[in-house]
């Protein structure tokens, strides 16, 4: 089998045709150079140089190898570089899971943009998935990182690390002519007799469980008259006056004529966006993504104004552990 170092020695000697100069160029003595050439000739079963006491010249086989050696060595170097870039996180792919609603949070485009700026050669693949599906996808290694919300009633697997990224308030979206639109703030209790437009239970959206929990805490169950799979559809349907909907405050970026948003007076009406990855994952691309998310969190990027919600703690936790 051909030794790469022996081939490198051969390429230099084929250019210099002089053992002393070749050895000096390689930073070695003549003895290991001679042994390397002999070993290469033995592995190929062909003599590569004519040697006399005064001169060194290539044989026919040596001429043939000399023509190929630069390309072979360049290919090997390219392979080395590719491996290094992959290990260092310079190339490869990063599969990011995100929810429909989280894509409208300011932190989402900031994080993706910051990552692509630092790792332009990494292929970022975005996968829109409900939060519960993202947890499964992380465990199944179908995605590498996740931007999701947690259902307090269904603890996440202990194999995952979830870090709070942004805490934002919930708001009520309704038709501009709705009686509650006249109030500066509303309460969950005010919605006891209201018709709701909501995500279906089967969608696996954490907001479904959170809204039901908020209502149950006040002693009633939301009366759902219409379901929709997308956040934009939920808000769009409120313009019909069919019902009201509760969404994260970042969704007020969806400007629909005839729809207004109101803050809640309740102190427990907030939702947290987490960044998740597998526990102990040594993937450098994942590590950078999580580090950038932490930087944005510390800078308060994507957080609501102080009057609307509290900034989340930067403490990491191993969920379920």
Automatic annotation (TrEMBL):
Signal peptide: none annotated. Residues 2-59 form the HTH lysR-type domain. PROSITE patterns: HTH_LYSR. It comes from the Bacteria. Keywords: DNA-binding, Transcription, Transcription regulation. Transmembrane segments: none annotated. Residues 312-321 have a biased composition (Basic residues). The keyword Transcription applies. Residues 300-321 are annotated as: Disordered. Belongs to the LysR transcriptional regulatory family. This is HTH lysR-type domain-containing protein.
């Amino acid at each position: 089998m051909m030794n790469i170092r022996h081939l490198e020695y051969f390429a230099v000697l084929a250019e210099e045709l002089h053992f002393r100069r070749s050895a000096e160029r390689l930073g070695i003595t003549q003895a290991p150079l001679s042994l390397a050439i002999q070993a290469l000739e033995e592995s190929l079963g062909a003599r590569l140089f004519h040697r006399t006491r005064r001169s060194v010249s290539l044989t026919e086989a040596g001429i043939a190898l000399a023509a190929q050696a630069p390309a072979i060595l360049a290919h090997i170097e390219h392979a080395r570089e590719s491996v290094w870039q992959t290990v260092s996180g310079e190339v490869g792919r990063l599969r990011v899971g995100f929810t429909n609603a989280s894509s409208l949070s300011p932190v989402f485009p900031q994080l993706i943009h910051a990552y692509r700026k630092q790792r332009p050669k990494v292929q970022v693949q975005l996968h829109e998935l409900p939060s519960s599906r993202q947890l499964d996808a992380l465990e199944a290694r179908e995605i590498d990182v996740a931007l999701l919300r947690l259902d307090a009633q269904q603890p996440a697997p202990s194999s995952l690390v979830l870090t709070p990224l942004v805490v934002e308030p919930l708001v009520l979206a309704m038709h501009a002519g709705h009686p509650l639109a006249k109030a500066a703030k509303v309460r969950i209790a005010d919605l006891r007799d209201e018709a709701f437009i909501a995500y279906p239970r089967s969608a696996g959206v954490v907001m479904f469980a959170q809204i039901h929990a908020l209502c149950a805490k006040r002693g009633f169950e939301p009366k759902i008259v219409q379901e929709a799979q997308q956040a934009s559809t939920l808000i769009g349907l409120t313009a019909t006056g069919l019902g009201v909907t509760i969404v994260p405050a970042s969704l007020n970026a969806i400007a629909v004529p005839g729809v207004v948003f109101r803050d809640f007076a309740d102190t427990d009406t907030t939702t947290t966006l987490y960044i998740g990855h597998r526990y102990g994952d040594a993937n450098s691309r994942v590590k950078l993504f999580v580090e950038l998310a932490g930087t944005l969190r510390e800078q308060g990027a994507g957080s609501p104004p102080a009057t609307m919600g509290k900034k989340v703690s930067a403490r990491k936790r191993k969920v379920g552990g």
